[in-house]
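Quick one: structure tokens for this chain, please?
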Amino acid sequence: MKNKRMAFGGLVAIALGAAIFFGIRSIAGDSNDPAEVIRIGGQAGGAVAGLGVALIAMSFFIAPRPKR
């Protein structure tokens, strides 16, 4: 792993995606259409978590900027 900061950002993004999903899941019961709310929350959480996975994958190939 070349870029530890990028990998840490990816882990934070994955955790944020999970928090979005579970946060939306907790309020879905009060909705008129809970299945649709869960679907939207899953898509949003999945998109954020997917960006986190991409950041972690990129951290293996992109080196940090050299210090001056």
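The helical segments are 4-27, 34-59.
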